Amino acid sequence: METPLYIISIRLLTALVLGALIGLEREYRAKVAGVRTHFLVALGSALFCVVSQYGFGMDLKDSSRVAAQVVSGIGFLGAGTIIFHKNVVRGLTTAAGLWVTAAIGLACGTGMYAAAIATTFMVLVGLEVLHIFLIKMETSTMALSFSSASREKAMETVDFIRSHCVEIISYSLNTHRSLPNESYEVTLEIRVKRSLRDHLLADCLQTFEDVRISSID
């Protein structure tokens, strides 16, 4: 018996809407995969599921095989959103979001609307609630360069930063000699709490007046 077109359309449309909702949250957070990527993943997954169920008639004995390929195949797309830069891995949450969006699409494709809607709600609530609670604990990597006319002041500044940051990843001290004066330039790569990043720079400048920050990345 052929499935009515309106039922298939409802499944695809539901997948599109739910995927777009997750994409909106990722877009709001300025992530690499936004609304378009997420609704396409959900819509494509739902279509694969519909095709596996109804596209081959009775010749396909195991319709779950196509859905299983979606689960493994989405990993390639998720891997493309993961970036390793300056000893920090970024994009894992977005990759996981694409993975669960594909699962939501599959659920819509099989007509499991309640499970798909409930999962979308959990994803959105989980991302937002955890963001609020974890924002004070999240860390970011910052490259900082500053210079000072005194070696002692430069080392005091390094000690001050060490006591206020989570970790010093790398550190270098270079001496620039220009008669009759000398200057000392320090380059640091540090891991610091996001909520304390701006305060650290402000406190550093206020505590050490002769220290000049050259660059911040």
Describe the structure.
- The protein contains seven helices and six strands.
- The protein has 217 residues and is an alpha+beta fold.
- Strand 4 and strand 5 form a beta hairpin.
- The strands form two sheets. The chain has a four-stranded antiparallel β-sheet with strand order 4-5-3-6, with helices on one face.
Mean pLDDT: 77
Approximately how much beta-strand content do the residues carry? 15-25%
Q: Number of helical segments?
A: 7
Please provide the ordered H/E string of secondary-structure elements. Answer: HHHEEHHEHEEHE
- Judged by helices, strands and strand pairing, the structural class is alpha+beta
Number of strands: 6
- Any low-confidence stretches, pLDDT <50, length ≥5? none
Report Rg. 26 Å
Strand order of the largest sheet: 4-5-3-6
Percentage of residues in helical conformation: 55-70%
Terminus-to-terminus distance: 62 Å
Judging from the principal axes of the Cα atoms, what is the shape?
A: elongated
How would a crystallographer describe the biggest sheet? Answer: 4 strands, antiparallel
